[in-house]
Amino acid sequence: MEKPDYQGESLPLLDFTTILASQEVEFLLSGEEKVPLTSFDDENTIICLFFSANWCRPCHGFTPKLVHLYNTLRTMGKELELCSFPSTTMTMDSMLTSRPCRGLPSRLMSVCTRDYAKDYGEDAFQFTRKKREELNALDDSKRQGGKIDQLLAVMSPVMFWVLQILVSELVGKTVGLFFGAQWCPPFRAFTAHLVESYKQLRSSRGGCFEVVLVSSDRDQNEFDVNVRGMSWLAVPFEDRTRQDLCRIFNINAIPALVLIGPDGKPIRTNGKNIITLYGAKAFPFTQSSIEEIEASLKKEGDLLPRQIQDIKHEHVLKLDMLKAYVCDYCKRQGKFWAFSCDACDYDLHPTCVEEAG
User: Fold this and answer.
1) What is the CATH number of the domain that holds 58?
2) How many domains does one find in the chain?
3) Does 8 reside within a domain?
4) Does residue 243 fall inside a structural domain?
5) Are residues 271 and 165 in the same domain?
6) Does residue 5 lie in a domain region?
7) One domain for residues 254 and 276
8) What string of H, E and C letters represents the secondary structure of the chain?
9) Is the pTM of this model over 0.85?
10) What is the pLDDT along the chain (357 residues), one digit of tens a residue?
11) Are residues 25 and 132 in the same domain?
C-alpha cells in the first residue's frame, strides 16, 4: 500500500479550523491565555503541529531541538508558530525563551516531521515538499560532486589533528569518514582494526590515506576524550558538518566508515566491513582491488587440500573459509582459510597443520 504524503499541498483556513471545531475545540492554550480559533488571520505564518507527550522519552530529547529551531527562525524574522498536542504545552512554554505560542495563524502549510526539522534545522523553512526536494538534491550534489573541501567545510575550513589543518589539504587523497563515539563499545573495538590499517598505509604509502573522525559524542568533554591521542583528523565538535555528514550519507548506526576516493567521490559506504576483512591490503578500496584480493584468496585455497588429519586432533579437519578465528594451536588470530572441526569448534591455521603420517 502506498504511504500517505505528509509533505503535501497547503491546506486552506477552512480545513484547519473546521477540523478543530468539529472536535468541539473552541480555543488553544498559550501559557494561561486562551487563543480563540477566530484569531487565525495571518496568512504569512506557517504552523507546525507538534504531536508528543510528556511521558515520551524521545519527545524530551527532540523538544529542545525544536525550540532551538523555533527561536532561530523567529530571530531571523521568519513567521512560524508551534502548536503542541496534547500534553506538552507547559513543557513547551517553559522552554520558549522568546515567548510562548501566540494565537495560531490562518494557514497550515505542512506537517513538520521530527526528522525533517532535526536533519535540516532552519534550512528546512518553509517545510514544504518542494523545499525538502531542494535540500535532498543539494545533499546528492555534495555526496556525488567530487569536491571533498565543499563536503567537509560548512562552518569552518579547518579540522583538528593536534594542530588545525586546512580541509583543502585533503584534496587528491583517499579519505575515510569515520562515524562513531567514545561511548559506543563497537566503535572502540573497530577503532583497533582501523588504527592498524591506518598505520600500515601511512608507513607503506605515506600520506595518501587520511581518516576523519565524524563524532557522535554527546558533549565537548566526551569529544575531547575521544580525540585525545588519536592518530587522525576530526571534524570540530561545534561544527555543524558532523550532523550534515550523517544526514548526507544516511548514517543510522555507528561505527561506520565511508571511503572517499582521490576524485572526491564515494568509493564505498561499507568501509567498516572492508577494513575488518582485508585491512590495509584492500587499499585503494576500489572494486578492482577487492576483486584482486578475492581472486588471490581463491588461488590460495585451490592449493590447499580439502581435508586433513592433524596429529593434534582426533577428527578429520575440513578446509573452511572463516572471516576471523583464533587458532587452537598457536592461539593467534587468523582470517580466511582454516582447517576446522565443526563438532569440536576446533580451528587451525594452514601453517599450523601437522599431518598424521
Assistant:
1) 3.40.30
2) 3
3) no
4) yes
5) yes
6) no
7) yes
8) CCCCCCCCCCECHHHHHHHHHHCCCCEEEECCEEEEHHHCCCCCCEEEEEEECCCCHHHHHHHHHHHHHHHHHHHCCCCEEEEEEECCHHHHHHHCCCCCCCCCCCCECCCCCHHHHHHHHHHHCCCCHHHHHHHHHHHHHHHHCCCHHHHHCCCCCEEEECEEEEHHHHCCCEEEEEEECCCCHHHHHHHHHHHHHHHHHHHHHCCCEEEEEEECCCCHHHHHHHHCCCCCEECCCCCCHHHHHHHHCCCCCCCEEEEECCCCCEEECCHHHHHHHHHHHHCCCCHHHHHHHHHHHHHHHHCCCCEECECCCCCCEEEEEEEEEECCCCCCEEEEEEEEECCCCEEECHHHCCECC
9) no
10) 454 444 444 445 445 666 667 666 677 666 667 777 666 555 566 666 777 767 777 777 777 777 777 777 777 776 666 666 544 444 444 444 443 444 333 333 333 445 666 677 667 666 677 777 777 888 887 888 777 877 876 555 556 655 577 888 888 999 999 999 999 999 999 999 899 999 999 888 888 899 999 999 989 999 988 888 788 889 888 888 888 898 889 898 999 999 999 998 999 999 999 999 899 999 999 999 999 999 999 999 999 999 999 999 999 999 998 878 999 999 998 888 999 999 999 999 999 999 876
11) yes
- Which range of residues forms the domain containing residue 244? 145-293
* Residue 187 and residue 117 share a domain: no
